[in-house]
Amino acid sequence: MQTSASASQADTTVADAAAATTTEPLSVSDAFGSVVDKLAGWLDALILLLPNFVVAVLIVLVAAVIARFVRKGVRRLLEKATRQSAGARNVIDLLGTVAYVIVLAAGTFIALGVLNLDSFVTTLLAGAGVVGLALGFAFQDIASNFIAGVLMAVRNPFTVGQIIETNGHMGTVKELTLRSTLIETFQGQTVIIPNAKVFQEPIVNYSTKGTRRVDVACGVGYGDDLQHAQQVAMSAIEDLEGRLSERPVQLYYTEFGDSSINFVLRFWVDFRKQTDFLGAQSEAIKAIKAAFDSEGVTIPFPIRTLDFDPNGGVPLTKMLRPNEGEA
């Protein structure tokens, strides 16, 4: 009897549980009420978040104002540190914009933190780091040229229109960008050199001081009076057009050559373009030649003494007719 009662009680419990777990379909009014409850919950959360949202907006606005002041400050600082040129102007504007973006981005990240979006900020920074690393490897050469262009614009070793020599090329600078330097050679060729190579290699700037020394190499015969030849050569270019009178003419004998005693004559000229140098050099050569001819100073031709006897000192006629004197 007790066993039957227990089984009956267990069946009743199972039936009650099944009835309790059975869900009846919601009515339209119940569904609408559920949606209203959800919206009310969201509205309550928004109201609770509203102070933080206002603070975040204020942080972004303040960051934007500070970023503008930072951009102006960076531009003024770089303008004082660099000479005004096209390349420097571009770099100044670029660095000012970079400073503006950095400050504004920092303010935005702080605002996201106020809104309790720390996980989003962390994910965003991690993604930006991965993307930046990938781009760095992919565009390594472009990045190196870009950085070199920025440093060159700040240091300003040369400007557009100046004559320079670098990487085995000499010519006039026609354009300076953040990626490359464009040089037009004196033969009319256009050479584009990446800024990384220009930055790493020596640069000879012929236009910095606006003057250049002209060296003229020549020689006089062994039978000439060296002091007289020196005076004649130096006097020949004293009144040369374009020569800087404040820089004295210099002449130095350099060596005993095969057929002449060689010297180098030096003087300075104004230098704005390559033709200033070449023209002065050409006029100096003509003036020295005319003065030497007028004063009887010889510029000897190369002389070679031919000796056909192993012991030397035997005339050529003797070598050609060795038995002529024995008859």
Describe the main β-sheet briefly: 5 strands, antiparallel
Summarize model confidence as the mean pLDDT: 79
Which runs of at least 5 residues are low in confidence (pLDDT < 50)?
17-23
What is the CATH domain class of the domain at 48-138?
A: Mainly Alpha
Number of helices: 9
| Rounded radius of gyration (Å) | 45 Å
How much beta, percentage-wise?
15-25%
Q: Based on Cα principal axes, name the global outline.
A: elongated
Helix content: 55-70%
- DSSP E strands, number: 8
Derived from helix and strand composition plus strand pairing, the structural class reads alpha+beta
Q: What's the SSE pattern?
A: HHHHHEEEEHEEHEEHH
The spatial strand order of the largest sheet comes to 4-3-2-1-5
Q: The CATH topology of the domain at 48-138, please? A: Helix Hairpins
Multimerization status:
single chain
State the CATH architecture of the domain at 48-138: Orthogonal Bundle
Gist of the model:
By secondary structure, this protein is an alpha+beta fold. It is built from nine helices and eight strands.
Can you describe this structure?
There is one protein chain. Mean pLDDT is 79; it is low at 17-23. The strands form 2 sheets. The chain has a 5-stranded antiparallel beta sheet. A 3-stranded antiparallel beta sheet has the order 6-8-7, covered by helices on one side. The longest helix is centred in the first third of the chain and has 54 residues, at 28-81. It has helices at 2-21, 28-81, 86-114, 118-138, 140-155, 195-200, 226-236, 274-295, 316-320; strands at 163-166, 169-176, 180-185, 190-194, 204-205, 211-220, 250-256, 261-270. β1 and β2 (169-176) form a beta hairpin. The chain starts with a helix and ends in a 7-residue tail after the last helix. It is built from 9 helices and 8 strands. The protein is an alpha+beta fold. The chain is 56% helix and 16% strand. Among the domains are: 48-138, Helix Hairpins (Orthogonal Bundle), CATH 1.10.287; 158-205, Roll (SH3 type barrels), CATH 2.30.30.60; 211-295, Alpha-Beta Plaits.
